[in-house]
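Issue: ligand-bound run for adenosine monophosphate - logging full I/O for the record.

Environment: standard queue, default settings, no custom constraints.

Inputs:
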Amino acid sequence: MRRICVFLGSNAGRRPAYREAAAALGRALAEQGIGLVYGGSSVGLMGVLADAALAAGGEVIGIIPQRLVDKEVAHHGLADLRIVTSMHERKAQMAELADAFVALPGGAGTLEELFEVWTWAQLGNHTKPCAVLDVEGYYHSLLTFLDHTVEEGFMRREHRDMLVVADSPAELLGKLAAYRAPTVTKWIDGHER
Ligand code: AMP
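Outputs:
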C-alpha cells in the first residue's frame, strides 16, 4: 500500500480523542512509509493529521480547490500542494492517487467523500478498501443505520461488510492490508443492466 487517502473534519470536534487519533494516524502512516493524500487544508482535524505526518517525516499530498485556497485554509507547509479547479477534480485525483480510503470523524464533507468512493467500489469501478476509524464510537449510529439499509433490502450484506471498521490506527492498517474486494453485483434482485 503506497498511499492512503484520509477524509476528516475541517473542524476538530469536541473531544480531545479526535485530535489524538488524527495525529496517531499521521504518525503511523509516516512510520510505515505510507504516503498521505488528503484535502490540503490546515484547519481542524485535517491540519492535525497533516502536521503529524509531516513531523514524522512522511509524504503528504494535499489536493485543494482554488476556492478553498482563496478562503485561506490551504496548508502552506506542504511540499506537494495541488490546487485544482473544482471539488469533482479534487475527488478524482484523490481516488486515482490512493490505494485505500479512510474516514476519521467529520461532518457532511467527510461523509460525502467516503460514500462516493464506497459507492464506486460497490459498482466495481475500483477494488480499493474504504474504511472508518471509529474513534470513541463516533460512527456507531451510522454503522447501525447501514445495517438497517441491509435489513430493508437496499444494500447487500457483502457491500455493507466492505466498509472496514477499526478503532485504532494499528488495527486499521492491518485490516486495509488484508482487504479483498467482494465480487457481487450491486443489485439485489439480479438486474445487471
Ligand atoms: P467536513 O467533514 O464537513 O468538515 O468536511 C471535511 C472534508 O471535506 C475534507 O475531507 C475535505 O476534503 C473537504 N473540506 C471541507 N472543508 C474544507 C476546508 N476548509 N478545507 C479543505 N477541505 C475541506
